[in-house]
Amino acid sequence: MKIIVNKFKKVANFCYELFEIAELPIHFSKFSNKLYSVYQKLFLLVYKQFRKFTYEELLTDLADNFSLRAYLGLNKLPNYTTLIKFAKRLPTEVLNKLVLAFKQLIPKPNKVAIDATGITLDNASQHYCKRIGLKSKKRPFMKTTFIVDIESYIILLCKMRKKARHDVIDAEPMMKWLAKNYPDLYAFYADRGYDKEEIFRLCFELLDAYPFILQKNALLPKHKKKGRYRKETCDIFDYGEYLQRNKIETLNSMFKRRFGSNVKSRVDKIQKVEILTRVIAYNIDRMLRIGNEVILIIIRITRVSY
Description:
The chain is 48% helix and 11% strand. The chain is of the alpha/beta class. The protein folds into 2 domains: 2-90 and 265-303, no CATH class; 102-258, Nucleotidyltransferase, domain 5 (2-Layer Sandwich), CATH 3.30.420. A 5-stranded mixed sheet has the order 3-2-1-4-5, sandwiched between helices. The longest helix has 22 residues, at 268-289. It is globular and about 70 Å long.
């Protein structure tokens, strides 16, 4: 138990450092009752993803964990409905700022890859649904697109949508976002789903990175292909280097095995909050595993209950 508590104290240190980098206020509203700070409630949402708890199980666990409660400055535990209401009101922009805050804690990425994966929104067992005679149907999912550093396996950007859409719809705005926050990349990896002239143009002009994107109809002669930038990669394409893209598939597997492949929430807003806090938890867990040491400058007052 002592080892577990020490681990989550390190997680708390990472969380508080992220909150400081993102310049989050201690309270979102001056009319707040100020019983719990934004920092404390955000950490509890991230801690919930680490332990794979429901909201009630989370507070039951904290009720017996006096050491962690004292470390967080929680003199009194909140009701589980307090965290649910906080998650409903929490803007997703705040969580996106926290994901971007990792750029000050990690080395500058050189090789990035993009891919989409589905997070299931249905928790029903397919086996027992079949046993009781329910008709099989396509399970609902949240399409989640990641841009990751394939050398450190850190998620740099995340975008979600509930309906199935083509990959390039989310890729183009994410690449513009990537160029703004992570300029001067070396290589950009993607599969055939991202074979579009605009994606190649953004790689060359905006990211200043070489696109290792496998084209459809790769054996088609160059003079029959369309697009200036797509033609530029036809003559020289290192397929062995392109296979580095498989690392993002490894990351998707790591993400789902560590934190689960489904979400339990039923409200759209809370589903997105749960996935984004899971991304933050994954990045922190990854940094702890690879042994990155971060100099933490934390204001002690943020850990004290108001």
